[in-house]
Amino acid sequence: MKYAFFPGCVARGGCPELYGAAKLICQRLGIELQEMPGASCTGAGVLQEKNEFLGDTLNARTFAMAEDLGLQIMTICSTCQGVMSQANHRMRKDPEYLARVNKELAVEGLEYKGTANPKHLLWVMIEDVGLDKLTELITRPLSGIRMAPFYGCYLVRPTDALDMEEHPERLTALEQVIETLGATVVDFSGKTRCCGFPILTINETNSVAMVAKHTLDVKDLGADAMVTPCPLCHLNLDGYQPKAQAQAQRKIDMPILHLPQAIGLAMGISRKELGLQKHIVSTKALMVKVGAA
Amino acid sequence: MDVTVRIRRYDPEVENPESYWQEYPVTMDDSATVLDALIKIREEQDGTLSLRCSCRSSICGSCAMRINGHAGLACKTQASSALTDGNTIVIEPAGVMPVVKDLVVDFSLFWDKIREVVPYLQPQGDEPEAEYIASNESMLHLSSVTACIMCGSCVSDCTVMEVDPTFLGPAALAKAYRFTADPRDGDEKGVSQERLEQLVEPTGMWDCTRCGECVSACPKGVDPMGRIMALRDQAMESGLNNSNGARHAEAFVDIVGHSGSLNEALLPVKTVGITNIPGLMSFLPVGLRALTHGKMPPLIHPNIENVQNVRKLVKKLEDPPLD
Question: pTM for the complete prediction?
Fold first, then answer.
């Protein structure tokens, strides 16, 4: 199993531990990753606010590179997944639009033929690797750990661009993985809501209030940790939790795990290798409970 | 079809009122809607259950509520498609707005926001001799926005309004777009500058997180978030760039256009403005925490391979040559 790897900017910037953890678990799962050093940022939906056509062209450029490699794209970022899926959706349903995009790519000698089908690692786990294979690789089940899922908006909406009708299993993918790891799912209505990250530099008070709401909701439900497939959610839920604590005037201390870290823990990979010491909210107490201290 | 309808109830008239769950077993046709089930419960089992409804055909917008956690019209939702855990439908009042009783919420907040955006045409300049002319294309473009039935589903599920009721919100901002995009509103060119100036203020268009909840919740395809994005575009086009939101979008394009990937250390700096010392200082504690945990993004940001190709693309598509 081999993919063109699109980690996204944040997994190599603000959340380097995600990149490392993803590489480690992919190695164990037998997933080969081909880097694309010439691929650009997806635009994260922000660049699209100013110039959607430019955003779609940049994504088509990445898709064309993957086509040239003869590989499908795998990402580890909910936001990248959503933005790529939306761009792909617009181009695939409108051949004239795709032709306009390709006219821009021709300067670089690239052409997007429309065959890309980018997939988040979470979907790859469910659809391509299979949970049976994951089960085989678990050496340290997370039994007794209560884990809350947090998807990230872009991995759940809009449903048409994300092929949810064809793939209804994607709606519960995170819960399925959490259960496979041996942990107990802490279900809560906030799991598909916004973490607040996109407005962090625009309205920090509201952004931090969202962090406080979600982390306190799962704390009140007795969660030991939250797990997310989105590094932007991680930046906010983990990085801004100290501010959320101050705003809510309540102690939160909710460890936020990247999806590959949660999987890696159950595979018996060490805390350090998974970069769990790099979080703002300490994961130490959780590690004691998991038996990975 | 036998279903269990689990309803979140609230009666303000009891001592120490608190919301609670109540379950009702209902037998009905496979073709029944969620609203049919609720009416059946009210008529046959519990006359104290309060809800709003009228047209039963998704035109009046009265019966918006949360069905299995997400807002929608009870009359437009088939009961058979809303079954969770085998045969249960979970019903709650709409979110964000305060509950009056059971499934009835107080819409004051909703209407206040709609009024705030001045929901009628405000043409400027001289009146035309005959009627105002609007092209077919512009009206077709607006038809999906004017399809709004004011049901409040988008407001119910708005992630920002949930934490901050001062946000104008998806319904009012989509309504505002209905006017800013109308060629009869604003100056001779149809630019509604004054409206846009108000809408770029805090609690306006830039406070949306782009979470997409409103798009999912809307039963009429209004696409409120898409309209908010279009408002942002209009604001930037008309020179209203002095906000963190506009700077954020512009900085993003600049940064990707320079190095091909996102420079996370530079983006917030450019967003608050390089001369905004208090704004920049506010990042210090977070930056320091990141630094001490080995999470700080590299200050010297590497470019992607063959970055010149992306630079050319961005330059060309951002400043297209004049024909």
Answer: 0.94
